[in-house]
Amino acid sequence: MQVSIPADSTAAAAQARTQNLKKAASACFIGNFVEWFDYAAYGYLATVIAVVFFPTENALVGLMSAYAVFALSFMVRPVGGVFWGYIGDKYGRRPALSWSILIMTMSTVCIALLPGYASIGYAAPVALLLLRLVQGFSASGEYAGASAFLAEYAPKHQRGFYTSLVPASTSAGLLLGSLMVAGMYAFMSSEHLHEWGWRIPFLLAAPLGLIGRYIRLRLQETPEFAAQQAAHVEKNTPIFELFKHHRKAMLIAFCVACLNAVAFYMILSYMPTYLSTELGMGKTESFVSATLSLLTYIGFIFFMGKLSDKFGRKTMLITASIVFIAATVPLFSALQGAGFWAIVAIQIAFGFMLAMNDGSLPALLSELFPTDVRYSGFAFTFNCANALLGGTAPLFATWLIQQSGSAMAPAWYLIAIAGVSLLALFSIKKLH
């Protein structure tokens, strides 16, 4: 005998799922926004932080020291990926996301209150490094967790669009960071900026992070995770399951994530410093140009997410890799001697290329792994790529320029990484 389900019950269930999806989108947006606002503030204020925590007669050495701390904070991210993946796959996406944002917020505020080298000597850079390590540990659960959460909540035909909210939130954090730092350079004296002004962006993490945690604590688990829990299927620790049954998927995910890792930090975080230190552009102008390009990049992200729902993640990401290989050197060459608006146009072009990759990546990485190891698989591979290649991108780009004597060195590095991603994408046979 068939049991009919009242239409109003079906409609109510659909409405409840839509409301939960909206709450999930808001919570994921705020968390990633806070994380990348902090990373933007650190990257854009690297020359100031270098003076406050690493005083030296050689400005390049100080800058590279600041970038080294930036890079080292990424080294702990694979460990964090294993930890948060375990929490997310065993106990739920919600507790992992709510605790990760709290730890991130606390460590960021502590950086804002940290005395500089002039006050406590070598203890200052050591404390900065330790706090950045805590940040890296907590941040390792954000991008992957938010992407998996939205992928499991969204209708399959809109999964690309909804998961594109995650990279959009990261770029929104970068945008606010760029706006704030540009305003600080424009309206604050160098003395005030070095004394206390650099602390302001880090202090803002407190209210934003607490709001994000409040929202996340009131989320419901995703339907896919709830169904898995209801089945009571006992499995090994997620990371062991991954290495036992999903090694190929892990290798593909790592290689594909490498392009995002390098391109994201090189184009959106390192570029203002590159323009000012290598091409002689004024700091205010370099940040303003980054801000203008970020505005268009955010719009591109959602557009690319929708295209990935129509044409497929693999097709979009292959296209992005090919475009990076073909266009990176010409665009970097065009930066040499270009005027302000030409530089803005070039950065918008880079943003379009990056959005083509980033708008499709979260959905693809979520679909490479089944529900029971999705959080762990995404978090571990994505964070390994960012630890090895993402966090080191500004430092490695600066080192390449110093060693080669060519301002074009970062472009060739980006092309090599795009080639690795392209080969990995061609090997994908199945998505979940």
TrEMBL record:
<feature type="transmembrane region" description="Helical">
    <location>
        <begin position="249"/>
        <end position="267"/>
    </location>
</feature>
<protein>
    <submittedName>
        <fullName>MFS transporter</fullName>
    </submittedName>
</protein>
<keyword id="KW-1133">Transmembrane helix</keyword>
<feature type="transmembrane region" description="Helical">
    <location>
        <begin position="66"/>
        <end position="87"/>
    </location>
</feature>
<keyword id="KW-0812">Transmembrane</keyword>
<dbReference type="InterPro" id="IPR011701">
    <property type="entry name" value="MFS"/>
</dbReference>
<feature type="transmembrane region" description="Helical">
    <location>
        <begin position="126"/>
        <end position="150"/>
    </location>
</feature>
<feature type="transmembrane region" description="Helical">
    <location>
        <begin position="99"/>
        <end position="120"/>
    </location>
</feature>
<feature type="transmembrane region" description="Helical">
    <location>
        <begin position="338"/>
        <end position="356"/>
    </location>
</feature>
<dbReference type="InterPro" id="IPR051084">
    <property type="entry name" value="H+-coupled_symporters"/>
</dbReference>
<feature type="transmembrane region" description="Helical">
    <location>
        <begin position="198"/>
        <end position="215"/>
    </location>
</feature>
<feature type="transmembrane region" description="Helical">
    <location>
        <begin position="316"/>
        <end position="332"/>
    </location>
</feature>
<keyword id="KW-0769">Symport</keyword>
<feature type="transmembrane region" description="Helical">
    <location>
        <begin position="407"/>
        <end position="428"/>
    </location>
</feature>
<dbReference type="Pfam" id="PF07690">
    <property type="entry name" value="MFS_1"/>
</dbReference>
<feature type="transmembrane region" description="Helical">
    <location>
        <begin position="36"/>
        <end position="54"/>
    </location>
</feature>
<comment type="similarity">
    <text>Belongs to the major facilitator superfamily. Metabolite:H+ Symporter (MHS) family (TC 2.A.1.6) family.</text>
</comment>
<feature type="transmembrane region" description="Helical">
    <location>
        <begin position="287"/>
        <end position="304"/>
    </location>
</feature>
<dbReference type="InterPro" id="IPR020846">
    <property type="entry name" value="MFS_dom"/>
</dbReference>
<feature type="domain" description="Major facilitator superfamily (MFS) profile">
    <location>
        <begin position="24"/>
        <end position="432"/>
    </location>
</feature>
<keyword id="KW-0472">Membrane</keyword>
<keyword id="KW-1003">Cell membrane</keyword>
<keyword id="KW-0813">Transport</keyword>
<feature type="transmembrane region" description="Helical">
    <location>
        <begin position="377"/>
        <end position="401"/>
    </location>
</feature>
<dbReference type="InterPro" id="IPR036259">
    <property type="entry name" value="MFS_trans_sf"/>
</dbReference>
<dbReference type="InterPro" id="IPR005829">
    <property type="entry name" value="Sugar_transporter_CS"/>
</dbReference>
<feature type="transmembrane region" description="Helical">
    <location>
        <begin position="162"/>
        <end position="186"/>
    </location>
</feature>
